[in-house]
Specification:
Layout: H1 23-34, H2 44-61, H3 94-111, E1 127-128, E2 131-132, H4 133-158, H5 164-184, H6 191-201, H7 204-210, H8 218-245, H9 253-273, H10 280-286, H11 294-303, H12 305-327, H13 329-335, H14 342-361, H15 369-395, H16 401-431, H17 437-461, E3 466-467, E4 473-474, H18 477-508, H19 514-534
Antiparallel strand pairs: 1-2, 3-4
Helix pairs in contact: 1-2, 1-19, 3-7, 3-8, 3-9, 4-6, 4-17, 5-6, 5-7, 5-9, 7-17, 8-9, 8-14, 8-16, 10-19, 12-16, 12-17, 12-18, 13-18, 14-16, 15-16, 15-18
C-alpha cells in the first residue's frame, strides 16, 4: 500500500489517496480542504471519517501545520466551512457587539482630535526654505505617522490582546505632550513636535482594529470604526476653526483641541477594553488570528506577493489623494470658489460616511468568504468609477463645489475603507492563513504614507502650476493645489483600475491549502472553547 509522502503528486491531488484504507481520510480531506465542507454532526460515515482524522493529520499533514495547532478533531458540532460561514450559534450578544463598535468609534473619533485640528489653520504668514510653513507641518506629521506605520508592522503584528488598551492611552498622552511642546517652541523649531505627534498616533488604529477583527460581523464593526475617521476629519477641523474664531492662537489651538477630546477618549478606551473576544463561531468562520513573528509575517506575504503588492499600490494612491483632500481641505474649497463655514467640513463628511458605511458594512451579509472578497474588490472599482464620473461632471459644470467634494470623497473612501474592512479580512478567512489583519494593514499604511510624503515634497520642489488657458500665468496657491489634485485623481482612476483587474485575476486562481484549511478549522474549535470559557 502506498503511503503519503512528500514526493509525487501535489498534496491537493485526489489521486494521491486511492487505496481503500485511506478513502475515509480522503473524504475528510476533500470535505475540509478541497470542497470546504466539514460535517461531524452524526452518522456512520461521519464517525468513520472522524476516527481516521487524527491518523491522516499526524502521518501526512502535521509537518505542514502551523506551530501550536492541535491535531484533535473537534468535539461535537462545529461551524461548517473554511470558506462558507454557517455558524452554529454565538455566545456574544448583539448588544455586546454594538457596545464594542460604539467604543471603537468613540476611541478613534477622539484620536483625530489630537491629529487633525491644526489643519484648520492657514499658517500662511511664514515661509521656511521657500516652502510654506503649513506644508512643513503636514510633511513633518506625516513623516512621523509613516515611521510609526513601519514600526507597527512588527509591533501590531506581535501585540498580545492584553496590551492594546494600555498602549492606546500611552500613545495618546504622548501625542498631547507633543502638541503642548508645539505651542511652547518658536517657529520653525516646533515643526519637530508634529513629527513626534504623528509618531505617537500612527499605531493606534491597529490597536483598535485588533479588538474587532476575526469576527463574523467584522465588516460592520470595522465600517463603524472607519466611519469615525471620516466624520472626525470634518468635525475636528470644525473644532479647530471654532477655537480660532474665539481667539485661540494657531500655535495653541491643536493642544486646546486635544484637551477637549481627552476625557471622552479615556472613557471610550475603558469601554473598548471590556469587549468580549471572538466566540467559537467567529473563529471557525473567519480563522484564528494569531500574533506573527518576523519569519511568519514575510512568509505570509511571500505566498501572495503579487496580489498583495498590487493591493498595496492601489491603497498607496488612495491614501495620497485622501490625505491631500483631508489635510488641505480649506485650500481645495477655496480653489473650488466655495465659501465654507466651520460646519461645512462636518456636513460634507457626514454624507460621505453614510455612503461608505452602507456599501462596505453590507459585506457581513455575504457569508461566503471567497465571494465577499471579490465583491470587496468590485466595491473598490466602483469607487474609482464614481471618481471618474465626478471629475467629468465637474469639468462640464454639471455639479457644484460642495457636491464635487462629497462625491470625490465618497469615491476615495470606498476603496480606502473596503481595504480596511473587508479585503484583507476576507483574504485571511478564505485562505485560512495563520496571521492577523493588523500586519497586512500596516504594510499597506506604511507605504501609503511613504507615498504621501514623496508627493508632498515633490509638489513643493516643482514650481507653481500655470494656467495655460490664461496665457501661462501662475495660478494662485489654492488653484494650483486644486489643479494638482484633479490631475492626481485622473492618474489614480487609470492606474488603480488596471491594478484591481490584475488583482482579481491573480486571486481567482488562489485556493486554501488543504493542510492549512484542516489545521485552522480544528484549532478554531479548540480556541473557541477556550475563548468562551474566558469571556465574561
Amino acid at each position: 500500500m502506498r503511503q503519503p509522502d512528500d514526493t509525487g503528486p501535489d498534496d491537493t491531488d485526489p489521486q494521491r489517496f486511492q487505496t481503500p484504507a485511506l478513502r475515509p481520510s480522503l473524504k475528510t480531506a476533500n470535505l475540509i480542504g478541497l470542497k470546504g465542507r466539514l460535517n461531524l454532526r452524526s452518522g456512520k460515515k461521519g464517525a468513520r471519517s472522524t476516527q481516521a482524522f487524527p491518523k491522516l493529520v499526524t502521518s501526512h499533514w502535521k509537518p505542514l501545520m502551523p506551530a501550536g495547532l492541535t491535531t484533535r478533531p473537534p468535539k461535537g458540532p462545529t461551524a461548517s466551512d473554511p470558506t462558507l460561514s454557517e455558524p452554529l450559534g454565538t455566545s456574544v450578544s448583539r448588544g455586546a457587539m454594538l457596545a464594542t463598535v460604539a467604543a471603537a468609534f468613540g476611541t478613534y473619533f477622539c484620536v483625530y482630535g489630537f491629529r487633525k485640528p491644526f489643519t484648520a489653520g492657514s499658517f500662511s504668514d511664514s515661509l521656511w526654505l521657500r516652502i510654506e510653513f503649513k506644508d512643513w507641518l503636514v510633511i513633518s506629521q506625516v513623516l512621523g505617522y509613516m515611521t510609526s506605520k513601519f514600526i507597527g508592522i512588527k509591533v501590531i503584528a506581535e501585540m498580545p490582546p492584553r496590551g492594546r488598551a494600555r498602549g492606546i492611552v500611552t500613545l495618546v498622552l504622548g501625542a498631547q505632550l507633543a502638541l503642548l511642546a508645539f505651542a511652547w517652541l518658536p517657529r520653525p523649531m516646533n515643526v519637530i513636535c508634529l513629527f513626534a505627534n504623528g509618531l505617537a498616533l500612527g499605531m493606534i488604529f491597529g490597536l483598535v482594529l485588533g479588538f474587532l477583527e476575526g469576527r463574523r460581523c467584522t465588516e460592520a464593526l470595522a465600517a463603524g470604526l472607519c466611519t469615525s475617521f471620516i466624520v472626525a476629519d470634518g468635525v475636528t477641523k470644525s473644532v479647530g476653526a471654532w477655537l480660532l474664531d474665539i481667539g485661540i492662537s494657531e500655535a495653541w489651538m491643536p493642544a486646546a483641541a486635544g484637551g477637549l477630546f481627552l476625557p471622552p477618549l479615556l472613557l471610550s478606551v475603558w469601554a473598548l477594553s471590556l469587549s468580549p473576544p471572538p466566540d467559537q463561531g467567529d473563529l471557525v468562520a473567519r480563522s484564528v488570528r494569531n500574533p506573527l513573528n518576523r519569519q511568519e509575517r514575510w512568509s505570509l506575504y511571500g505566498r501572495y506577493a503579487f496580489g498583495l503588492t498590487v493591493l498595496v499600490a492601489v491603497y498607496l494612491m488612495v491614501t495620497v489623494l485622501r490625505s491631500l483632500r483631508a489635510d488641505f481641505a480649506p485650500q481645495l474649497w477655496s480653489g473650488l470658489a466655495v465659501d465654507v463655514s466651520p460646519g461645512a467640513y462636518t456636513r460634507s463628511e457626514l454624507w460621505v460616511a453614510l455612503g461608505v458605511i452602507a456599501l462596505n458594512g453590507g459585506a457581513i451579509f455575504i457569508l461566503n468568504n471567497r465571494r465577499a472578497f471579490f465583491v470587496s474588490l468590485f466595491t473598490c472599482m466602483t469607487g474609482f468609477v464614481l471618481m471618474a464620473a465626478t471629475l467629468l461632471s465637474w469639468r462640464t459644470g454639471l455639479i457644484g463645489g460642495f457636491t464635487f467634494m462629497v462625491l470625490i470623497g465618497l469615491g476615495l473612501y470606498l476603496p480606502y475603507v473596503a481595504i480596511h474592512t473587508t479585503v484583507f479580512e476576507r483574504l485571511l478567512a478564505m485562505t485560512r492563513e495563520r496571521g492577523n489583519l493588523g500586519f497586512l494593514m500596516y504594510v499597506a499604511d506604511a507605504f501609503g504614507y511613504l507615498g504621501y510624503v514623496g508627493v508632498m515634497i515633490s509638489r513643493n520642489l516643482f514650481g507653481p502650476v500655470t494656467n495655460a488657458a490664461g496665457g501661462g500665468e501662475p495660478l494662485t496657491r489654492d488653484e494650483s493645489l486644486l489643479a494638482f489634485f484633479l490631475t492626481a485623481c485622473w492618474l489614480a482612476v487609470g492606474i488603480c483600475g488596471v491594478g484591481l483587474i490584475a488583482a482579481t485575476i491573480y486571486f481567482a486562481g488562489k485556493r486554501p491549502r488543504p493542510a492549512v484549511a484542516m489545521a485552522t478549522t480544528v484549532a478554531a474549535s479548540d480556541a473557541g472553547r477556550e475563548a468562551i470559557k474566558r469571556s465574561p
